């Protein structure tokens, strides 16, 4: 089968940073599905895993944690899918990724592809939808079905135009929250407003003053999708007493949790690979989550966040996608289709 992988961790400009490969098609075991990959999307985690380091791989490392495709074979313990089913998923960071014609993925973290989306449109969704859904509803404890209560609450989404932000804005609005998103360019401001943001501020400027200038109360929830270190003091300053801050971006410097103490505010992490990595008891909730996202897409409550599509899936196009992700200026998702 065709695949794109690496042996060395190199700058994306290096010709061997990502290479085209021929590999043996894997065989499903246990609850694995063997999926014929039709489309993939690229996320910041792809570039972080590929980032330069001394480590070298004896066997090719396949990146990629977003895909849509067709089930072609099921492991002996599978109960939820059958050959021919159209699926979408983000997979597990502990296994080979989606930059390949065929991929093994546990059925417990696999969802039914939205029937009204193409494979590329569906491939844009899994990782960001899982991250946004878990961050808002599992980690920060917002009840997505209690819209009457949520209408009295607000959430600030820092980095609203990125991959996760683009779906988080929609999910938060669907759940009834007042949504404040951050964006710093005319095109990203336009993007988040079209997705449903009620107000937009610039995360490159002091957030407290902008909130005050808009006569908006301090947010009950803050979802940080951009540079936790840079925004920590600003988030601590504006989070509502007894509110919750959730981040998906690892810190490089120690975070002063004392800044949250007087407000009795909470801080939580969201890492969408946790359930698959540790095979938690509720691992199958990612299947439930993805199926709910499919239903919302089919009902028109949410829309895909594709902003660019490349074809075919090969090393050259993946290098282009990685470069764009590393620029920090992407809007929505970059998708690749067809090997």
UniProtKB/TrEMBL annotation:
GO terms for molecular function: oxidoreductase activity; zinc ion binding. InterPro entries: ADH-like_C, ADH-like_N, ADH_Zn_typ-1, Chloroplast_QOR, ER, GroES-like_sf, NAD(P)-bd_dom_sf. Keywords: Metal-binding, Oxidoreductase, Zinc. Residues 17-336 form the Enoyl reductase (ER) domain. Belongs to the zinc-containing alcohol dehydrogenase family. Quinone oxidoreductase subfamily. This is Zinc-type alcohol dehydrogenase-like protein. The lineage of its organism: Bacteria, Bacillati, Bacillota, Bacilli, Bacillales.
